[in-house]
Amino acid sequence: MTAEPLPALRALSARALSDLARGLKSDHIAADASSFLIRHIAPGVSETAAIELCSLLATGLAPEHAALLVGAIAAERLSPARSVLELVTSGPDAVGGTRDTGVALRELFASAERRVLVVGFAVHQGREIFAVLAQRMRQLPDLMIRLCLDVRRAPGDMTRRDALLRRFAERFMRQEWPGPRMPELFYDPRSLAGYGPRASLHAKCVVVDGVKAFIGSANLTEAAQLRNIEIGLMLTDNLIANAVERHVEALIMAGHLKALPLDH
After folding, report:
1. What are the residues whose beta carbons fall under 8 Å from the beta carbon of 23, sequence distance 6 or more?
2. Which residues of 218-247 are buried (b: 16+ CB within 10 A; e: fewer)?
3. Per CATH, is 84-259 categorized as 3.10.320.10?
4. What single-letter DSSP state applies at residue 190?
5. Span 128-169, pLDDT tens digits
6. Could you tell me the residue ranges of all domains in the chain?
7. Using an 8 Å Cβ cutoff, are 19 and 44 in contact?
8. Whole-structure pTM value
């Protein structure tokens, strides 16, 4: 997935960012400043952040302009995140006024501009559910889609793991994904254990562009979207959305979720 720019600078405290901006404005941090000097002037700055700043200055960015950039990052850190919460449901709408889960997910997919993370769903009849997402991939060549799906072994099925994964990948490409460009696909290898208790990738959430998120109970199946009683929350909250992305990224980096290549 595409990372946010300047991650080390963005991770600094408001105090460290303020010290950096002050040093840049006062000419204590010049265009040729070393990371050591930057950390001496602003002790709260990490080595990685100092190197990021050095790289910016080395491209020709003037210190006064770098000060404006650092100040903008600090203002972003201090400003409260705008949060919007909406209830979405599937099944009978006894109260009225709630949005349908399928409609909400399609609108969420249609709003994607940079990246989409889909985690934990069982998928059946995915061609209809993923149609909007595949269309966005055709419209936006740089759009990155990552699916972490529940790939499991049926009770009593002792098929080799590689064969199960190949069968899932073939079914996904043939029956579930409607576009020519394939997303990234990940699975939990513990769900394919041949003996003993198995884990399940049971979380059900979607994150779009690190800002919008859906967290709920409904799978990406016809029954869950149209018939079952399901409840979910649609969030516009960058703090929660980013926290979900970071958690999943950490699971991938630690090897708890494995990539499943999709070969044409």
Report:
1. 29, 38, 41, 42
2. bbbbeebbeeeebebebbbbbebbbebbee
3. no
4. G
5. 888 999 999 999 999 999 999 988 887 777 888 889 999 999
6. 7-78, 84-259
7. yes
8. 0.66
Cβ-contact 26, 64 below 8 angstroms: no
The packing angle between helices 131-139 and 101-110, to 10°, is 10
pLDDT digits (tens, 9 = 90+) for 32-90: 889 899 999 888 899 999 999 999 888 888 888 888 888 888 776 665 555 677 887 77
Pairing type for strands 184-187 and 258-259 reads antiparallel
Backbone torsion region of residue 228, taken as left when φ is above 0, otherwise alpha when ψ lies between -120 and 50, otherwise beta: beta
Closest CA to 109 of 203, 231, 208, 1: 208
Q: DSSP letters along 67-122, please?
A: HHHHHHHHHHHHSPPP-EEEEEEES--SS--PEEHHHHHHHHHHT-SSEEEEES--
